[in-house]
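Worked example

This section walks through a single chain of length 457. The input is the sequence exactly as stored; nothing has been trimmed or padded.
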Amino acid sequence: MKKNVFGFLLLLASLSHAQNKDEQMLKDMYKFSLTQSQCYSWLDDLSNKVGQRMSGSAGAEKGIAYAKAKLETLGLDRVYLQEVMVPKWVRGEKEMAYILDNKTKINVPICALGGSVATAKNGLTAEVIEVHGIDELKALGAAKVKGKIVFYNRPFEPENVDAFKSYGNCVDQRYYGAKEAAALGASGTIVRSMNFRLDDFPHTGAQSYGDLPKEQWIPTAAISTNGAELLSQKLKSNPKLQFFMKMSCQQYEDVLSYNVIGEITGSVHPEKIMVVGGHLDSWDLADGSQDDGAGVVQSMEVLELFKKLNYKPRNTIRAVLFMNEEFGGKGGKKYEELSKLNNENHIFALESDAGGFSPRGFSFECDELNFTKVLSWKNLFEPYLIHNFVKDHTGSDIAHLTSKKIVKAGLLPDSQRYFDYHHAANDKFDAVNKRELELGAATMASLVYLFDQYGID
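Given that input, the structure is written out below as tokens.
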């Protein structure tokens, strides 16, 4: 009996020691991030010296060179580039659009959606038909749609606290809208921008023509929320009004680009790989500080934290800065393809691609056993106001990883303001708060540390 009691006391002491050690490590990481981190200055450079990093562009090449050079200053075991062929789409001249109502021209802000074809050189003018979704469009049929510009005007649902839920319930009209309208003979589409706020910023994003023959492709653009409100109002008083749009975008052959990778080799299990990452590419309207410059520099900061605190990870830790998430996901697919070819074993992957706002928690893709383990760490995060641990989608780039047993996680920042900037011309450095960005980096490093220490079940 005494032996059992003694063993139990030893176990309690061991657990207490581990708890104290982990508490101190998290405290040290948050302190370093808030006092010595370089991630905010890196983001300043990436945003204001490099600028937009559209996949396949000269800006993307500059971003790759910058990120590689900075990783090489951190004393990592390995920094390298991973080749990947990516799409090259060029927006061309600034888009033009106006409502033509009884010979009165009212200018409205639009921007072409990624992958759109151009209008004719003189632009496109046609009557408009307003719908609130693809199902409503299909119910109208070809007779009512043919030759017209389809105007998708389903707004974000304001009742959702999770802004990504509202985005998910609207984004189909952006991604598939042109395909479905073209199949019914429409001449073009315009889509209400994906955000809550009423403003004059059109928000771009990827769209797909699916398996439609190229000769059926039609120009497609986003219209600002203020523009959408005005157009809808004008259509109520004059259903026969016309809309003019002019775009000169063009698709080229795929070009060579790179994922950027920095690595600390594991001290105990170098063959087990843990990934932390974000996507280096942005849209071309701005420098993409929120989407996803923030995730890039936070991922780099995880490695800097470990090096500066002299933490020697048990497993190999990689920061992977993926190329082409916005417009095809080629970087994530290539990383997985090569990891399979090299028989790599990924046990954990964490992505930051939801902005640089205050961190609230993580989403997870894992089994119940590992999720229970995560929940046992909640008390370690409570002093830092990290409380939201859910099972949900984690990240587009790490979605491709298919190791035999892997835990995937996505950083969950506060989502309320994210779509004010998402894919728009105001997604610039001044939209990111320094302390929020740093807190996110420390939160990511904390989760990586815990999984590195205790592994996956």
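What to look for: DSSP finds 15 helices and 16 strands in the chain.
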